[in-house]
Design brief:
By secondary structure, this protein is an alpha+beta fold. It is built from 7 helices and 16 strands. The strands form 4 sheets. Strands 1-2-13-10-16-6-5-3 form an 8-stranded mixed β-sheet. A 4-stranded antiparallel β-sheet has the order 9-14-11-12, with no helix packed on it. The chain has a two-stranded parallel sheet with strand order 4-8. Helix 2 (43-57) packs across helix 4 and helix 4 (133-159) packs antiparallel against helix 5. The longest helix has 27 residues, at 133-159. It is globular. The two termini are 33 Å apart.
Length: 331
């Protein structure tokens, strides 16, 4: 995996800004994922985010279930216990595969949106169960949203489209972020292919900003060697692991391809052994277009040589189409 891109140079000279944007575009197109450092979210803030994440998942199950995700797919808020989701059911969606593999994900999550969302409310554990959790998460959301807009502006610059248009398309901040915990398990549990930490999938939104610990196991499909997955490790928890989602694939008419990724054995654990795979924590911030925004490709990317590949659909309808499969286990 290539070195992290110094995102602070986006605010440097015009030449530095263009160079950073171009490097970001090139890395995402070839590797499917890019790493960012000096992106504006302080290391101390991210460290505190991991501390709260660990505290939440250390709560007794009955406490976490107070904030349980509804049994249906929408709204996508609250706590999902191990096995509630079936990410394998959405594998290959944008490649035209009608039904994904039925693979059990060994993970638990909690999904959180904006405190100012006028359509969907967050679902919280009571304050006395985890003091400060709600306030911190609401603040982190707002901080991540600001960085999201800067990343989108950089991508727009490299793609030769309007930065203002890209920002307006995402200006309502109708996003969500997810705390993830992968419990420690024997490596043998993954041997027969019926279970994994999280199955191959693409994300629904425009971009995903991921923070991960040092355990390892994240793999992303190489865009120049489809079918080949490469490990993505972080130098520290403060690095942003950035990947492209389905919405940007649609908006750019396949100029960008959504990055297929998964979490499996870390490189330190022998496949099929009786070794224990350590528990793993990560945080994913999913940046999405405004719900009412159209995902019809930008005009620039529709030409006689590259005819339009997608029908018109709103971001909200597309999101719900995908997430219904996630919770139903049916494609």
């Amino acid at each position: 995996m290539s070195e992290a891109i110094d995102f602070s140079l986006l605010k440097g000279s015009p030449e530095e800004s263009k160079a950073v944007s171009a490097a970001l575009l090139a890395t995402l197109k070839t590797r499917g994922v890019a790493k960012l450092k000096n992106h504006g979210l302080p290391a101390e803030l991210i460290a505190e985010m991991f501390d709260y994440t660990k505290k939440f998942f250390a709560l007794p199950l009955e406490d976490k279930m107070i904030a349980k995700h509804p049994p249906e797919s929408t709204p996508n808020r609250g706590y999902s216990y191990v096995g509630q989701e079936s990410v394998g059911s959405i594998s290959g969606y944008e490649k035209g595969v009608s039904e994904g593999k039925q693979v059990r994900d060994i993970k638990e999550t909690i999904d959180i949106g904006s405190a100012n969302d006028d359509l969907v409310d967050n679902i919280w554990v009571p304050e006395e169960k985890l003091p400060g959790f709600r306030k911190f998460m609401e603040g982190f959301y707002e901080s991540a949203f600001k960085v999201e807009l800067e990343i989108l502006a950089a991508l727009a610059m490299a793609l030769g489209i309007s930065q203002d248009e890209m920002k307006m398309l995402h200006g309502k901040g109708e996003n969500e972020f997810r705390l993830l915990h992968y419990p420690a398990i024997p490596a043998s549990e993954l041997t027969d292919g019926t279970a994994t930490r999280i199955a191959d999938h693409t994300d629904f939104g425009t971009i995903t900003m991921l923070f991960q610990d040092s355990v390892g196991g994240l793999q992303v499909e190489d865009q120049q060697n489809l079918g080949t997955f490469r490990g993505v490790e972080s130098a520290d928890k403060a690095e942003i692991i950035l990947n492209i989602g389905d919405s940007l694939q649609r908006l750019t008419n396949d100029t960008f391809r959504a990055a297929v990724h998964r979490v499996t054995y870390p490189p330190t654990v022998k496949v099929g052994s009786e070794e224990i795979i350590p528990e793993r924590f990560s945080i994913a911030y999913f940046a999405k277009p405004n719900r009412t925004a159209s995902l019809f490709p930008f005009k620039k990317f529709i030409t006689p040589a590259t005819p339009c590949q997608y029908e018109d659909i709103t971001a909200w309808d597309y999101n719900n189409l995908r997430i219904t499969k996630l919770f139903s286990g049916k494609a």
